[in-house]
Amino acid sequence: MAQITLHRVGELLRIVFELLWDKPDGLPAKDIFALIPELTQLTEYELGFSSLSNTPRYGRIIRLATVHLRRVDWLVKNNKRRWYITEDGRQARKKFTNAEKIRGHIDIVAHVDPIGAKGPRILVQVKHKGQVITAEGLKTFLSALGQNDFGLLVSTGGFTGDAKEELRTGAFQKVTALDLETFFNLWMSHYDKLSQGCSKLNSFKANIFSILLRIVKPVPCFNS
Question: Is the entire prediction scored with pTM above 0.70?
Answer without folding.
Answer: no
